[in-house]
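Figure 3 (text version): structure tokens given as input.
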């Protein structure tokens, strides 16, 4: 099996599982997602409360994260693979000319580039097409913003 066929097979499996999970709308899954989003928001609030000027809107954050999980479930059902990148910015360097991120330990050309302090908005990428082909080709749907 060549790389392209292996990639297509993997994404067929990914889409089939996401669609199957979407069909099984069980209370247990809904409760699990709610519990995980509550735990995530609690951890986030604990880390941000010392820099927040006002009280953080915990119910609003929980709803936002719950909606993000629902959006991810919809996106995972699509044949193209969508990706936010980078999700973690520690140690990454940003090339302002190419708008790419790289690890300077792996790519020596990135030695002189600035280190990313904060990913304000990750870029949103799409790999492959609606026919489930060409996963090696990606396009940027939304450019990222860094500080």
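Below: residues designed for each position.
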């Amino acid at each position: 099996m060549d790389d392209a066929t292996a990639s297509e097979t993997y994404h067929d499996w990914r889409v089939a599982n996401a669609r199957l999970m979407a069909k099984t709308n069980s209370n247990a899954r809904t409760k699990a997602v709610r519990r995980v989003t509550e735990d995530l928001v609690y951890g986030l609030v604990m880390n941000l409360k010392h820099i927040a000027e006002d009280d953080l809107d915990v119910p609003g954050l929980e709803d936002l994260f719950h909606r993000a999980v629902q959006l991810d479930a919809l996106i995972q059902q699509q044949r193209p693979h969508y990706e936010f990148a980078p999700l973690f910015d520690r140690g990454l360097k940003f090339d302002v000319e190419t708008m790419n991120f790289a690890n300077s330990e792996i790519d020596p050309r990135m030695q002189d580039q600035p280190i990313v302090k904060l990913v304000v908005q990750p870029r949103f990428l799409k790999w492959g097409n609606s026919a489930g082909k060409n996963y090696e080709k990606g396009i940027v749907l939304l450019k990222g913003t860094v500080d």
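DSSP finds three helices and seven strands in the chain.
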